[in-house]
Amino acid sequence: MMLSQIAPAIRLTVLLAIATGIIFPFVITAIAQLMLPHQSNGSLIAVNQQTVGSELLGQLFVKPEYFHGRPSAAGSGYSGESSSGTNYGPTSKKLILGDASFAGVKQLAENYRKENNLETDILVPVDAVTRSSSGLDPDISPQNAFLQSERVAQARGINSNAVNELIKRHTNNRDLGLFGQPRVNVLQLNLALDSLKQTKQ
Which residue range forms the structural domain that includes residue 173? Predict the structure, then answer.
């Protein structure tokens, strides 16, 4: 009696394992590769057939001739295997003021103004002084980009108007006109800057 109940259960388990563990993933992968090959392969960006990053993952840029992304709390910064936010709430003293081991909003704002030669009373965009929940955000706000444009233009020896035009062209609006906020992908913008520099030579 027991064997007559176990045998169908085993057959059903094997059938479901094949259906959900092999057939379903294969079909979904095939559909994704056919319909959305760029996205299904990680939205990778290549330059001269060399992969330089992904549209979905931020990178650390520190040179003055490049736009800088928002701060990251992922490991030492933008570390994919350590994706994380700070886990500090908006009332956290450490989040606002920081300490010797952690740059708070106040410190980040001061550094941002100094780095971009801004007056001390200039309002700093929130994404310039806060970490994202993943620590891997690839985008910044257009306001953040425009405040950095003069520094980038001076470091590259090009007209700031040309840099501002690049920002406008690389600004993505709200999804479907409703969701999210306007944003600029930092890697794509920096690659466009490199292309602009090459065309100027």
Answer: 44-200
pLDDT tens for the chain, 201 residues long, are 567 788 888 889 999 999 999 999 999 999 999 998 888 888 888 888 888 888 899 999 999 999 999 999 888 888 888 898 888 888 888 889 888 888 989 999 999 999 999 999 899 999 999 999 898 999 999 999 999 999 999 999 999 999 999 999 999 998 877 888 999 999 999 999 998 765 554
Q: Which amino acid is at 162?
A: A
Do 106 and 165 fall within a single domain?
A: yes
Task: With beta carbons less than 8 A apart as the criterion, state whether 84 and 135 touch.
Answer: yes
Residue for token digits 């913008």?
189
Residues 33 and 100 in one domain: no
**Whole-prediction pTM value?**
0.81
192: helix, strand or coil: helix
Residues comprising the chain, all counted = 201
Helix axes 142-156, 186-200, angle to 10 degrees: 30
Measured distance CA(109)–CA(106) in Å, rounded: 5
